[in-house]
Amino acid sequence: xxxxxxxxxxxxxxxxxxxxxxxxxxxxxxxxxxxxxxxxxxxxxxxxxxxxxxxxxxxxxxxxxxxxxxxxxxxxxxxxxxxxxxxxxxxxxxxxxxxxxxxxxxxxxxxxxxxxxxxxxxxxxxxxxxxxxxxxxxxxxxxxxxxxxxxxxxxxxxxxxxxxxxxxxxxxxxxxxxxxxxxxxxxxxxxxxxxxxxxxxxxxxxxxxxxxxxxxxxxxxxxxxxxxxxxxxxxxxxxxxxxxxxxxxxxxxxxxxxxxxxxxxxxxxxxxxxxxxxxxxxxxxxxxxxxxxxxxxxxxxxxxxxxxxxxxxxxxxxxxxxxxxxxxxxxxxxxxxxxxxxxxxxxxxxxxxxxxxxxxxxxxxxxxxxxxxx
Length: 374
Known about the structure:
The protein is of the alpha/beta class. It contains 17 helices and eleven strands. It has a single domain (4-14, 40-369), classed as Metal-dependent hydrolases (TIM Barrel, Alpha-Beta Barrel), CATH 3.20.20.140.
């Protein structure tokens, strides 16, 4: 559960829903179903959405195209473009120099709509100059305008030290890097684990099982000696505890997507910690509606909207634009209306959050947690 205050919110929301006339409710549900099925934004929806000056706080766009900037201008949207170094993904992510060049090129051509989150090459961990080299690279990109830095799940789930031990987020070699990010008044984004599915036996009904079928290198269940999720999250908490002056945003619901009680406890314990909603909306849809509303209400200052939209240089930009706008429209309807949804086998009703909370989730919180965003 989410604690005493959230339980009260659930009771209040549930009580308010009791007594609605059955016929009116059925008619409203039918109207909501029709709204949810629409692809893209209607003119009225777009006007309300754009008025918030929305920010997508988690994207991976590695190519400048006029079509993408036109989409951002249409939505009145700013974005945070995040670099990632991975040795088992698209070629763009294997070359930090190339990736950094492409991201900064987009930033400079974006009409001030795209902001940059930098990173370092964690695969150099066993180099003698690892931390010093990482700090030099981070500071160079901070000087170019990057407003945040990210560590990725290869720290925790993939990279090992010279003795064959997995590197966890609280490894002492990373401490100077964290301290430098804090000293530069930047924000650290941490994506340090995956959904629970990665550690569980195969389950065709799991929301994200298909990902591990396509990416067995991240299926911890079948990797002997892999750290448990609990080990990784505990190491993350050590970083939060030991670096109270470091602003940290936990990507993907802080990698705690299936345990909102733990999310609440972590937010309560560490005031330097916020989370983004990126690519985890189905987990929110699975919550009882009143509980989800209570969660957003209590933690309205700690939640940042994001999507994980990704555009590689060789991708079809027109298909990307269409899919991205559909995602923004679907998420908006879920958070701002009481439409009914059937998404990835999940039946849910929109949260109809008040405008004051929507503005924080879509705009104010990103500006607060990522100083440098307008």
